[in-house]
């Protein structure tokens, strides 16, 4: 099975956050890989990864990084594949530094950026991209979104059943 999504993180300390992306991709039956690469400590490997990503069959890259958060931008600069950046909380600035670093890319080098520690949304965005060209993925995504809706419908019904003397609904 060839991966179509790559989850890259600057350090394995980001894994507890990025597992949410892996879990969602697994649930959606999307083949993926997970690797640790650092834009600062392994720059050659990052460049090689990005240059070879499309030839290996990858279609979307999810790149997580904290602090200076150069990894998503360096990958985006070296591939034409879509890159989704996940800023990681962990620095003294609670991830805001990573968010600014990832979202403020120069013209021509876009990185789609999700919320701080927003790995699950990064995976959903990757699935949405893949669903554009794959009807089976689109069906699984629609079922997933319907499941989200049903959770809220159920929660609302449960709230309706709660009684208070001054509650009007």
Largest sheet: 5 strands, parallel
**What is the CATH topology?**
Rossmann fold
> What is the helix tally?
6
Strand content: 5-15%
Return the structural class: alpha/beta
Give the CA-based shape: globular
Structure description:
With about 170 residues, the protein is an alpha/beta fold. It has a single domain (about 5-135), classed as Rossmann fold (3-Layer(aba) Sandwich). It contains six helices and five strands, in the order βαβαβαβαβαα. It has helices spanning about 15-25, 45-50, 70-75, 95-105, 120-130, 135-160; strands spanning about 5-10, 30-35, 60-65, 85-90, 110-115. Strands 2-1-3-4-5 form a five-stranded parallel β-sheet, with helices on both faces. Helix 1 (about 15-25) packs parallel to helix 5, helix 2 (about 45-50) packs across helix 3 and helix 5 crosses helix 6 (about 135-160). The longest helix is centred in the C-terminal third of the chain and has 27 residues, at about 135-160. The radius of gyration is 18 Å and the shape is globular. The termini are far apart.
Summarize the structure.
This protein is of the alpha/beta class and 169 residues long. Helices cover 46% and strands 15% of the residues.
Structural descriptors:
169 residues; five-stranded parallel beta sheet; alpha/beta; 46% helix; Rossmann fold
Furnish the topology, listing elements before pairings.
Layout: E1 5-9, H1 15-27, E2 32-36, H2 43-52, E3 60-66, H3 71-77, E4 83-88, H4 96-103, E5 112-113, H5 119-131, H6 135-161
Parallel strand pairs: 1-2, 1-3, 3-4, 4-5
Helix pairs in contact: 1-5, 2-3, 5-6
């Amino acid at each position: 099975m060839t991966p179509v999504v790559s989850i890259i993180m600057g350090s394995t300390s980001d894994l507890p956050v990025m597992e949410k992306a892996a879990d969602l991709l697994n649930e959606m039956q999307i083949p993926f890989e997970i690797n640790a690469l650092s834009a600062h400590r392994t720059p050659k490997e990052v460049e090689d990864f990005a240059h070879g990503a499309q030839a290996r069959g990858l279609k979307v890259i999810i790149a997580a990084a904290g602090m200076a958060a150069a990894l998503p931008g360096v990958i985006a600069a070296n591939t034409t594949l879509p890159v989704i950046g996940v800023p990681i909380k962990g620095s003294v600035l609670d991830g805001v530094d990573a968010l600014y670093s990832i979202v403020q890319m120069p013209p021509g080098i876009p990185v789609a950026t999700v919320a701080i520690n927003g790995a699950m949304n990064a995976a959903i965005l990757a699935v949405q991209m893949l669903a554009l060209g794959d009807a089976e993925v689109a069906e699984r995504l629609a079922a997933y979104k319907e499941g989200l809706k049903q959770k809220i419908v159920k929660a609302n019904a449960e709230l309706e059943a709660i009684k208070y003397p001054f509650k009007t609904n």
